[in-house]
UniProtKB/TrEMBL annotation:
It comes from the Bacteria. Residues 1-40 are annotated as: Disordered. Residues 62-153 form the AB hydrolase-1 domain. It holds the Pfam family Abhydrolase_1. It comes from Catellatospora methionotrophica. One of its GO terms (molecular function) is catalytic activity. This is AB hydrolase-1 domain-containing protein.
Length: 297
Protein backbone atom coordinates (compact mmCIF):
# COMPACT_ATOMS: atom_id res chain seq x y z
CA UNK A 1 0.00 0.00 0.00
CA UNK A 2 1.15 3.59 -0.61
CA UNK A 3 -1.23 5.46 1.68
CA UNK A 4 1.60 7.41 3.34
CA UNK A 5 3.40 8.41 0.16
CA UNK A 6 2.56 11.88 -1.12
CA UNK A 7 3.26 11.74 -4.86
CA UNK A 8 2.57 13.80 -6.84
CA UNK A 9 2.50 16.89 -4.61
CA UNK A 10 -0.93 18.55 -4.55
CA UNK A 11 -1.18 21.93 -6.30
CA UNK A 12 -2.10 23.75 -3.07
CA UNK A 13 1.03 22.53 -1.32
CA UNK A 14 -0.81 20.63 1.41
CA UNK A 15 -0.01 16.91 1.74
CA UNK A 16 -2.80 14.45 1.27
CA UNK A 17 -3.02 10.72 1.82
CA UNK A 18 -3.99 8.37 -0.93
CA UNK A 19 -7.19 6.57 0.00
CA UNK A 20 -9.56 3.99 -1.38
CA UNK A 21 -10.26 4.52 -5.09
CA UNK A 22 -13.75 5.64 -6.05
CA UNK A 23 -15.76 4.93 -9.16
CA UNK A 24 -16.00 8.64 -9.90
CA UNK A 25 -13.71 10.21 -12.46
CA UNK A 26 -10.73 12.38 -11.51
CA UNK A 27 -11.33 16.10 -11.11
CA UNK A 28 -10.71 17.77 -14.45
CA UNK A 29 -12.34 21.08 -13.70
CA UNK A 30 -15.80 19.58 -14.13
CA UNK A 31 -18.04 18.03 -11.47
CA UNK A 32 -17.27 14.31 -11.18
CA UNK A 33 -20.12 11.80 -11.04
CA UNK A 34 -20.88 10.85 -7.43
CA UNK A 35 -19.41 7.58 -6.20
CA UNK A 36 -21.92 4.75 -6.37
CA UNK A 37 -21.74 1.29 -4.82
CA UNK A 38 -20.61 -1.53 -7.08
CA UNK A 39 -21.37 -5.22 -6.78
CA UNK A 40 -19.42 -8.40 -7.44
CA UNK A 41 -21.20 -10.79 -9.80
CA UNK A 42 -20.49 -14.40 -10.68
CA UNK A 43 -20.17 -15.24 -14.37
CA UNK A 44 -20.86 -18.53 -16.18
CA UNK A 45 -17.14 -18.90 -16.95
CA UNK A 46 -16.19 -18.71 -13.28
CA UNK A 47 -14.70 -15.21 -13.07
CA UNK A 48 -16.11 -12.74 -10.55
CA UNK A 49 -16.46 -9.25 -12.00
CA UNK A 50 -17.13 -5.87 -10.43
CA UNK A 51 -20.21 -4.18 -11.89
CA UNK A 52 -22.07 -0.91 -11.63
CA UNK A 53 -25.53 -0.32 -13.11
CA UNK A 54 -27.13 3.10 -13.56
CA UNK A 55 -30.25 4.28 -15.31
CA UNK A 56 -33.39 2.24 -15.96
CA UNK A 57 -35.31 0.73 -18.82
CA UNK A 58 -34.35 -0.24 -22.33
CA UNK A 59 -32.22 -0.25 -24.31
CA UNK A 60 -29.36 -1.57 -22.18
CA UNK A 61 -25.78 -0.52 -22.98
CA UNK A 62 -22.62 -2.16 -21.64
CA UNK A 63 -19.39 -0.15 -21.32
CA UNK A 64 -15.93 -1.76 -21.54
CA UNK A 65 -12.90 0.19 -20.29
CA UNK A 66 -9.28 0.45 -21.38
CA UNK A 67 -6.14 -1.14 -19.93
CA UNK A 68 -5.42 0.20 -16.46
CA UNK A 69 -8.68 2.14 -16.43
CA UNK A 70 -12.11 1.15 -15.20
CA UNK A 71 -15.61 2.23 -14.29
CA UNK A 72 -14.55 5.78 -13.41
CA UNK A 73 -13.17 6.46 -16.87
CA UNK A 74 -16.11 5.00 -18.81
CA UNK A 75 -18.94 6.56 -16.79
CA UNK A 76 -18.62 10.02 -18.42
CA UNK A 77 -19.05 8.43 -21.85
CA UNK A 78 -22.49 7.16 -20.87
CA UNK A 79 -23.75 10.19 -18.98
CA UNK A 80 -26.22 11.21 -21.71
CA UNK A 81 -27.06 7.72 -22.98
CA UNK A 82 -30.68 6.69 -22.39
CA UNK A 83 -31.80 3.44 -20.80
CA UNK A 84 -29.87 1.23 -18.43
CA UNK A 85 -26.09 1.61 -18.42
CA UNK A 86 -23.88 -1.24 -17.21
CA UNK A 87 -20.23 -0.58 -16.36
CA UNK A 88 -17.78 -3.23 -15.21
CA UNK A 89 -14.15 -3.99 -14.52
CA UNK A 90 -12.36 -6.58 -16.63
CA UNK A 91 -10.55 -9.39 -14.83
CA UNK A 92 -7.40 -8.13 -13.15
CA UNK A 93 -8.84 -4.64 -12.65
CA UNK A 94 -10.44 -3.10 -9.57
CA UNK A 95 -12.26 -5.63 -7.40
CA UNK A 96 -12.70 -8.18 -10.19
CA UNK A 97 -10.99 -11.52 -9.70
CA UNK A 98 -7.70 -12.53 -11.31
CA UNK A 99 -7.66 -16.13 -12.58
CA UNK A 100 -4.26 -17.77 -12.68
CA UNK A 101 -2.17 -17.73 -15.84
CA UNK A 102 -1.81 -15.36 -18.77
CA UNK A 103 -4.88 -14.00 -20.51
CA UNK A 104 -5.76 -13.06 -24.06
CA UNK A 105 -8.47 -11.06 -25.80
CA UNK A 106 -10.65 -14.16 -25.92
CA UNK A 107 -10.73 -14.13 -22.12
CA UNK A 108 -11.63 -10.44 -22.06
CA UNK A 109 -14.34 -11.03 -24.65
CA UNK A 110 -15.82 -13.71 -22.36
CA UNK A 111 -15.92 -11.19 -19.50
CA UNK A 112 -17.67 -8.66 -21.71
CA UNK A 113 -20.10 -11.21 -23.13
CA UNK A 114 -21.06 -12.42 -19.66
CA UNK A 115 -21.84 -8.91 -18.41
CA UNK A 116 -23.76 -8.09 -21.60
CA UNK A 117 -25.77 -11.33 -21.49
CA UNK A 118 -26.67 -10.98 -17.82
CA UNK A 119 -27.93 -7.44 -18.42
CA UNK A 120 -29.64 -8.17 -21.73
CA UNK A 121 -27.55 -5.47 -23.42
CA UNK A 122 -28.25 -4.72 -27.07
CA UNK A 123 -25.65 -1.96 -27.35
CA UNK A 124 -22.00 -1.77 -26.36
CA UNK A 125 -19.19 0.76 -26.10
CA UNK A 126 -15.53 -0.21 -25.84
CA UNK A 127 -12.51 1.99 -25.15
CA UNK A 128 -9.02 0.94 -26.30
CA UNK A 129 -8.57 -2.49 -24.66
CA UNK A 130 -12.35 -2.65 -24.31
CA UNK A 131 -12.70 -1.90 -28.03
CA UNK A 132 -10.35 -4.80 -28.74
CA UNK A 133 -12.37 -7.15 -26.55
CA UNK A 134 -15.54 -5.95 -28.26
CA UNK A 135 -14.03 -6.60 -31.70
CA UNK A 136 -13.13 -10.12 -30.58
CA UNK A 137 -16.69 -10.72 -29.38
CA UNK A 138 -18.10 -9.40 -32.67
CA UNK A 139 -15.70 -11.56 -34.69
CA UNK A 140 -17.09 -14.58 -32.82
CA UNK A 141 -20.74 -13.43 -32.80
CA UNK A 142 -21.31 -10.82 -35.55
CA UNK A 143 -24.98 -10.27 -34.69
CA UNK A 144 -24.64 -9.93 -30.90
CA UNK A 145 -25.35 -6.17 -30.70
CA UNK A 146 -27.56 -3.69 -32.54
CA UNK A 147 -25.34 -0.64 -31.99
CA UNK A 148 -21.65 -0.42 -31.09
CA UNK A 149 -19.21 2.39 -30.33
CA UNK A 150 -15.48 1.68 -30.69
CA UNK A 151 -13.53 4.54 -29.09
CA UNK A 152 -9.77 4.73 -29.63
CA UNK A 153 -9.19 1.20 -30.98
CA UNK A 154 -5.51 0.41 -30.53
CA UNK A 155 -4.81 -2.80 -32.43
CA UNK A 156 -6.61 -5.26 -34.73
CA UNK A 157 -4.89 -8.24 -36.34
CA UNK A 158 -1.32 -6.92 -36.44
CA UNK A 159 0.91 -6.37 -33.43
CA UNK A 160 1.48 -2.89 -32.06
CA UNK A 161 4.52 -0.89 -33.16
CA UNK A 162 7.46 -1.66 -30.88
CA UNK A 163 7.47 1.77 -29.25
CA UNK A 164 3.81 1.46 -28.24
CA UNK A 165 4.27 -2.13 -27.09
CA UNK A 166 7.27 -1.21 -24.93
CA UNK A 167 5.41 1.72 -23.38
CA UNK A 168 2.57 -0.56 -22.25
CA UNK A 169 4.93 -3.28 -21.03
CA UNK A 170 6.92 -0.78 -18.98
CA UNK A 171 3.74 0.57 -17.37
CA UNK A 172 2.44 -2.88 -16.45
CA UNK A 173 5.79 -3.96 -15.06
CA UNK A 174 6.11 -0.76 -13.02
CA UNK A 175 2.64 -1.23 -11.53
CA UNK A 176 3.34 -4.82 -10.58
CA UNK A 177 6.71 -3.95 -9.04
CA UNK A 178 5.36 -0.95 -7.13
CA UNK A 179 7.58 1.54 -9.00
CA UNK A 180 5.54 4.65 -8.22
CA UNK A 181 7.70 7.29 -9.98
CA UNK A 182 7.67 5.33 -13.24
CA UNK A 183 3.91 4.86 -13.05
CA UNK A 184 3.45 8.57 -12.28
CA UNK A 185 5.55 9.57 -15.28
CA UNK A 186 3.51 7.27 -17.52
CA UNK A 187 0.24 8.73 -16.24
CA UNK A 188 1.52 12.27 -16.87
CA UNK A 189 1.91 11.32 -20.55
CA UNK A 190 -1.89 10.89 -20.69
CA UNK A 191 -2.39 14.59 -19.90
CA UNK A 192 -2.11 17.39 -22.48
CA UNK A 193 1.08 19.42 -21.87
CA UNK A 194 -0.97 22.54 -21.21
CA UNK A 195 -2.74 20.88 -18.25
CA UNK A 196 0.15 19.01 -16.64
CA UNK A 197 1.11 21.71 -14.14
CA UNK A 198 -2.40 22.81 -13.26
CA UNK A 199 -4.77 21.69 -10.54
CA UNK A 200 -6.78 19.48 -12.89
CA UNK A 201 -3.62 17.74 -14.11
CA UNK A 202 -2.35 17.02 -10.59
CA UNK A 203 -5.80 15.80 -9.55
CA UNK A 204 -5.90 13.42 -12.50
CA UNK A 205 -2.47 12.00 -11.71
CA UNK A 206 -3.34 11.59 -8.05
CA UNK A 207 -6.60 9.76 -8.80
CA UNK A 208 -4.97 7.49 -11.38
CA UNK A 209 -2.13 6.61 -9.01
CA UNK A 210 -4.69 5.98 -6.30
CA UNK A 211 -6.44 3.46 -8.51
CA UNK A 212 -3.40 1.82 -10.09
CA UNK A 213 -1.26 1.49 -6.98
CA UNK A 214 -3.95 0.67 -4.42
CA UNK A 215 -5.88 -1.92 -6.41
CA UNK A 216 -3.10 -2.72 -8.87
CA UNK A 217 -3.31 -4.74 -12.07
CA UNK A 218 -2.93 -8.48 -12.25
CA UNK A 219 0.20 -10.05 -13.73
CA UNK A 220 -2.15 -11.91 -16.07
CA UNK A 221 -2.32 -8.71 -18.12
CA UNK A 222 1.42 -8.59 -18.78
CA UNK A 223 1.24 -10.52 -22.06
CA UNK A 224 -1.60 -8.47 -23.59
CA UNK A 225 0.64 -5.85 -25.27
CA UNK A 226 2.05 -8.66 -27.43
CA UNK A 227 -1.35 -9.91 -28.55
CA UNK A 228 -3.97 -8.97 -31.11
CA UNK A 229 -7.76 -8.97 -30.59
CA UNK A 230 -8.71 -10.77 -33.81
CA UNK A 231 -6.74 -13.24 -35.95
CA UNK A 232 -8.04 -11.67 -39.16
CA UNK A 233 -9.78 -8.28 -39.41
CA UNK A 234 -11.91 -9.63 -42.26
CA UNK A 235 -13.90 -11.62 -39.68
CA UNK A 236 -15.57 -8.30 -38.85
CA UNK A 237 -17.08 -7.96 -42.33
CA UNK A 238 -20.11 -9.96 -41.16
CA UNK A 239 -20.95 -7.65 -38.24
CA UNK A 240 -24.60 -6.61 -38.50
CA UNK A 241 -24.55 -3.76 -35.95
CA UNK A 242 -24.45 -0.08 -36.70
CA UNK A 243 -21.01 1.02 -35.53
CA UNK A 244 -19.49 4.37 -34.63
CA UNK A 245 -15.69 4.30 -34.76
CA UNK A 246 -13.87 7.19 -33.06
CA UNK A 247 -10.14 7.82 -33.31
CA UNK A 248 -7.75 10.73 -33.17
CA UNK A 249 -4.56 12.05 -34.72
CA UNK A 250 -1.32 12.11 -32.76
CA UNK A 251 -1.92 9.29 -30.26
CA UNK A 252 0.88 6.73 -30.51
CA UNK A 253 -1.03 4.12 -28.50
CA UNK A 254 -4.19 4.51 -30.58
CA UNK A 255 -3.17 5.22 -34.20
CA UNK A 256 -5.80 6.85 -36.37
CA UNK A 257 -4.95 4.27 -39.04
CA UNK A 258 -6.41 1.51 -36.84
CA UNK A 259 -9.73 3.37 -36.54
CA UNK A 260 -9.74 4.00 -40.28
CA UNK A 261 -9.07 0.36 -41.13
CA UNK A 262 -11.74 -0.79 -38.72
CA UNK A 263 -14.33 1.54 -40.22
CA UNK A 264 -13.44 0.39 -43.72
CA UNK A 265 -14.05 -3.27 -42.84
CA UNK A 266 -17.28 -2.97 -40.86
CA UNK A 267 -20.32 -3.04 -43.19
CA UNK A 268 -22.31 -0.28 -41.44
CA UNK A 269 -19.75 2.01 -39.83
CA UNK A 270 -19.43 5.75 -39.32
CA UNK A 271 -15.94 7.11 -38.70
CA UNK A 272 -14.96 10.24 -36.81
CA UNK A 273 -11.33 11.28 -36.32
CA UNK A 274 -10.49 14.09 -33.89
CA UNK A 275 -7.60 16.29 -35.00
CA UNK A 276 -5.58 15.99 -31.76
CA UNK A 277 -5.00 13.46 -28.96
CA UNK A 278 -6.28 13.58 -25.35
CA UNK A 279 -9.85 13.58 -26.62
CA UNK A 280 -11.41 13.39 -23.16
CA UNK A 281 -9.53 16.55 -22.17
CA UNK A 282 -10.01 18.60 -25.33
CA UNK A 283 -13.30 17.35 -26.79
CA UNK A 284 -15.24 15.99 -23.82
CA UNK A 285 -18.53 17.76 -24.55
CA UNK A 286 -18.44 16.94 -28.26
CA UNK A 287 -17.53 13.30 -27.55
CA UNK A 288 -20.38 12.98 -25.05
CA UNK A 289 -22.83 14.42 -27.56
CA UNK A 290 -21.48 12.30 -30.40
CA UNK A 291 -21.74 9.05 -28.44
CA UNK A 292 -25.19 9.74 -27.01
CA UNK A 293 -26.50 11.04 -30.34
CA UNK A 294 -25.47 7.81 -32.04
CA UNK A 295 -26.69 5.42 -29.34
CA UNK A 296 -29.92 7.30 -28.65
CA UNK A 297 -30.77 7.86 -32.31
Amino acid sequence: MINDLRWPPPPDGFPRRLGKPRNSAPNTGRPAPPALPTEIVDTPHGVQLERLSTGVGEPVTVFAHGLGHGIAETRPLGSAVTGKRVFFQFRGHGESSSPRGAWDYGDLARDLRAIADMAGATRALGVSLGAGALCRLLAETPDRFEKVVLFLPAVLDRRRPEAARRRLVNLLEAINSGDLPTVANAVVEEIPPSARNGASGWAYVRQRLNTLMNTGLSSGLLTLPDQVPVPDVNLLRDVSAQVLVIGCIGDDLHPASVAEELASVLPDATLHIYNRPSVLWHERADLRERVSGFLNG
